[in-house]
Write a structure and sequence with these properties.
This protein is an alpha+beta fold. β1 and β2 form a beta hairpin.
Length: 75
Protein backbone atom coordinates (compact mmCIF):
# COMPACT_ATOMS: atom_id res chain seq x y z
CA UNK A 1 0.00 0.00 0.00
CA UNK A 2 1.26 3.49 -0.77
CA UNK A 3 -0.14 6.75 0.65
CA UNK A 4 0.40 10.22 -0.74
CA UNK A 5 -0.66 13.55 0.76
CA UNK A 6 -1.29 16.56 -1.47
CA UNK A 7 -1.34 20.06 0.03
CA UNK A 8 -3.83 22.12 -1.98
CA UNK A 9 -2.43 25.24 -0.25
CA UNK A 10 -5.98 26.31 0.63
CA UNK A 11 -6.22 24.71 4.05
CA UNK A 12 -7.42 21.49 2.39
CA UNK A 13 -5.45 18.35 1.67
CA UNK A 14 -5.85 15.40 -0.63
CA UNK A 15 -4.83 11.88 0.20
CA UNK A 16 -4.45 9.02 -2.23
CA UNK A 17 -4.07 5.34 -1.42
CA UNK A 18 -2.53 2.97 -3.94
CA UNK A 19 -3.61 -0.56 -3.07
CA UNK A 20 -2.38 -3.98 -4.14
CA UNK A 21 -4.87 -6.76 -4.87
CA UNK A 22 -4.14 -8.18 -1.41
CA UNK A 23 -4.69 -4.74 0.18
CA UNK A 24 -8.06 -4.45 -1.59
CA UNK A 25 -9.12 -7.90 -0.40
CA UNK A 26 -8.15 -7.05 3.20
CA UNK A 27 -9.94 -3.68 3.02
CA UNK A 28 -13.12 -5.35 1.73
CA UNK A 29 -12.96 -7.97 4.51
CA UNK A 30 -12.36 -5.32 7.17
CA UNK A 31 -15.20 -3.13 5.87
CA UNK A 32 -17.55 -6.11 5.92
CA UNK A 33 -16.49 -6.84 9.52
CA UNK A 34 -17.30 -3.32 10.77
CA UNK A 35 -20.56 -3.34 8.80
CA UNK A 36 -21.58 -6.51 10.66
CA UNK A 37 -20.27 -5.40 14.06
CA UNK A 38 -20.56 -1.65 14.65
CA UNK A 39 -18.30 -1.89 17.71
CA UNK A 40 -15.27 -2.97 15.64
CA UNK A 41 -12.84 -0.67 13.90
CA UNK A 42 -9.56 -1.09 12.05
CA UNK A 43 -6.49 0.91 11.08
CA UNK A 44 -4.12 1.46 8.22
CA UNK A 45 -0.83 2.38 9.88
CA UNK A 46 2.65 3.41 8.86
CA UNK A 47 5.96 1.79 9.60
CA UNK A 48 6.95 5.31 10.76
CA UNK A 49 10.09 5.23 8.63
CA UNK A 50 11.28 8.27 6.70
CA UNK A 51 10.61 11.96 7.19
CA UNK A 52 6.92 11.86 8.03
CA UNK A 53 3.49 11.55 6.47
CA UNK A 54 0.32 9.69 7.36
CA UNK A 55 0.91 7.69 10.53
CA UNK A 56 -2.51 6.16 11.03
CA UNK A 57 -5.95 6.04 9.41
CA UNK A 58 -8.75 4.58 11.54
CA UNK A 59 -12.00 3.23 10.08
CA UNK A 60 -15.20 3.13 12.15
CA UNK A 61 -18.84 2.42 11.36
CA UNK A 62 -20.72 5.73 11.65
CA UNK A 63 -23.91 5.17 13.60
CA UNK A 64 -25.14 8.73 12.94
CA UNK A 65 -22.88 10.01 15.72
CA UNK A 66 -20.96 12.18 13.26
CA UNK A 67 -22.33 14.36 10.47
CA UNK A 68 -20.74 13.38 7.17
CA UNK A 69 -18.07 15.82 5.97
CA UNK A 70 -16.71 13.87 2.98
CA UNK A 71 -18.23 11.77 0.20
CA UNK A 72 -17.19 9.02 -2.16
CA UNK A 73 -17.61 9.06 -5.89
CA UNK A 74 -19.14 6.13 -7.71
CA UNK A 75 -17.15 4.27 -10.31
Amino acid sequence: MYVNIEDFKTGWYGMSLTLSTEDIDQLINNLKAIKENKEKHFHFFSDYEGSGGIGDIAFYHNTDKFKSNIQTDKL
